[in-house]
Amino acid sequence: MKAQGRCLCEAVAFSARSRAYTAHECHCTHCRNWSGHVWAYVCVRWDKLTFTRDDGLVWYAHTLKARRGFCGHCGSTLFWRRNGSAKVDVSAGAFDMPTGLRLGAPSFPENHGDYYGL
Ligand SMILES: [Zn+2]
Ligand SMILES: [Zn+2]
């Protein structure tokens, strides 16, 4: 299933191909700082992500092991990727389609800061 996504100003746009688009929420310290509180994201394969427009994507290396991608124009939070990983976490809100995410009880997926000891 193919899905399109973009940042607020559309300087960065992408299409992704994945069997499912399950949204997760992360409450780790880094995501809280980065997103405002809860970062909602969808994990897809990096090689299934195609940039249809890349006119301002900035990668911020917030640790030695992972980077966060955001739009340098409008500031939209877009990606989290462990260096060299086959996967990338994409902001759920960047997708054009609704992801069906319902924020509920806090979840702490094995991801981002704690799991990797970043
Ligand atoms: Zn933008
Ligand atoms: Zn996190």
UniProtKB/TrEMBL annotation:
One of its GO terms (molecular function) is metal ion binding. Residues 3-117 form the CENP-V/GFA domain. Pfam families: GFA. The keyword Lyase applies. Keywords: Lyase, Metal-binding, Zinc. PANTHER family: CENP-V_GFA DOMAIN-CONTAINING PROTEIN-RELATED, GFA DOMAIN-CONTAINING PROTEIN. Belongs to the Gfa family. This is GFA family protein. It comes from Paracoccus litorisediminis.
